[in-house]
Write a structure and sequence with these properties.
Elements (H helix, E strand, L loop, with lengths): L1 H31 L9 H13 L6 E2 L9 H11 L11 H14 L9 H10 L6 H17 L2 H11 L1 E3 L2 E2 L1 H9 L8 H10 L3 H6 L4 H14 L6
Parallel strand pairs: 1-3
Antiparallel strand pairs: 2-3
């Protein structure tokens, strides 16, 4: 019996040691990205793998551009659409989470997420798209790490360059060229609002660019943009 308990405690100790080392690995990456740009993300790699299952020659469209070379219209549009309190909160919008919970409860299904830009970035950089309690806990831990060592401008810069905007289209520069044949710095207010409206379902809207719901949401975002605070 003692031997069994000994092996059990040893297994528990190994589990927590591995978990701790994984957190250290994550934190090291977050610290590295304070100064250096991530060339890819877990979500990009997952999407590329799925695309190459159908077409071995498939490639992602992605080009990093610095924060200053991305239109303020797009920055304001994304904050208006995804996270109005981005510059003020510390990674979590508790009021937004509560509202999303109440909305989902009322509808009887998940129709709103309540995730902040920081949480979305944490998920996209490191985690798979599969929903699980562990993933949400890890997402929260990574969000805390990023908010602790990065300023809002850097978090937003990485987000702008890693967000999905279509089938194999990632980042503001690739999206601007894919949809409007301009650089990210040249996006108009309408173009930016429409790109922001596509974020919840980018692959669908890539194929349905004049969908009624998309155009309605674009108008709502445009009305909110002027009140958006950007880092």
């Amino acid at each position: 019996m003692k031997t069994l308990w000994g092996w059990l405690w040893r297994g528990v100790a190994i589990f927590f040691a591995v978990l701790f080392l994984y957190q250290v690995w994550l934190f090291a990456h977050v610290c590295w990205w304070i100064k250096f740009n991530p060339s890819s993300s877990a979500f990009m790699e997952d999407r590329l793998e799925l695309m190459q299952d159908k077409n071995p020659d498939a490639e992602l469209r992605h080009q990093w551009v610095p924060y200053a070379k991305i239109s303020n219209n797009l920055k304001r549009a994304l904050i208006a659409a995804e996270d109005a309190k981005f510059v003020d909160h510390e990674g979590f919008d508790w009021e937004g989470i509560q509202k999303a919970y109440e909305k989902n409860l009322k509808k009887g299904r998940i129709v709103a997420g309540g995730s902040t830009i920081s949480q979305q970035l944490a998920k996209n950089l490191f985690l798979s798209g599969k929903r699980s309690p562990f993933r949400k806990i890890e997402e929260a831990a990574i969000t805390v790490m990023m908010e602790a060592v990065m300023d809002k401008r850097r978090i937003f810069e990485i987000y702008l360059n890693s967000i999905e905007w279509g089938n194999g289209v990632f980042g503001a520069e690739a999206a601007a060229r894919h949809y409007y044949h301009v650089s990210a710095s040249q996006l108009s207010a309408f173009q930016a609002a429409k790109l922001a409206a596509m974020v919840p379902n980018p692959r669908y809207y890539d194929q349905h660019r004049e969908a009624r719901g998309l155009m309605k949401k674009t108008g709502i975002i445009m009305n909110r943009m002027n009140s958006s605070d950007i880092p």
